[in-house]
Amino acid sequence: MERWPELPYAAWKDTSATLQLWTQIVGKTRLMLTPWLNHAWHVTLRVTARGLATPLISTAERDFQVEFDFMDHVLWLRSADGHSRQLMLRPMTVAEFYGEYLHALSELGINVLINEIPNEIVDAIPFDRDTTHAAYDRDYANRFWRALLRSHEVFSHFRTAFLGKASPVHFFWGSFDLAVTRFSGRRAPLHSGAVPHLSDAVVREAYSHEVSSAGFWPGGGAIDYPAFYSYAYPAPDGFALAPVSPPQAFFSKELGEYILPYEAVRTAPDPRTALLDFLQSTYEAAANGGKWDRANLECAPGELGIPRPVEKP
Question: Do residue 265 and residue 124 come from a single domain?
């Protein structure tokens, strides 16, 4: 398999839009059955060796997990008592996927009511009435997952160099992106909210503290190509003018964040180093501009099998 596959957005944008809605249906299951964790970390999906999956979901009756398998193109529903159900991933409407998914859950003895309005999508159509989105290209779904695999590895290594509060590397189904976030430890100004079909309470809780956040997104809207991004909340003075690398990185005024096209990373002589440079330089733009306590928040990147050395205080 090509480790950094081509992923032209125009070639699979319909599949991307459909898949985003399918992941929202699965993600909302966990949302309704799991206690709230700060910054909505409890609702996210995780990259796996075959696709994207929920962490373990536990109810009074069942422990179960749901996984998108982008190698065999199956949605697996597995319970801890040995029972399972599967949906073949194929071109089908969101309404059809939603109905089959709820039926599979009920056959496992799992009954859940979710909000049928998609989040963070303009002109959202309720899941049970969406017969518009029905594309599924197996090749591009697999390519997307492979891009997530490589991004996950680099993000995970980048995360090891931070001692402060940091998120897991996780996939947000609302915005359809893989993300990792660092926190300064200080409270942030109250966020204005105003995200389509997402309550202000959720947005304000997500941005309750100062952050430097980076991620990978397949594209859409203002950026019609896959890209890595990095932003700060609140953005410190001069953030948009900070020197960042590699040279292909730029600040998007429309999005309010730094952008590095995926293609620039994929075709770089050393894609991993190019992406790490972007993550580090944009983080430094946020941390230096925001006067973070970098001496106490950072450490050397982790090494294989070697504990982080700790000196006597």
Answer: no
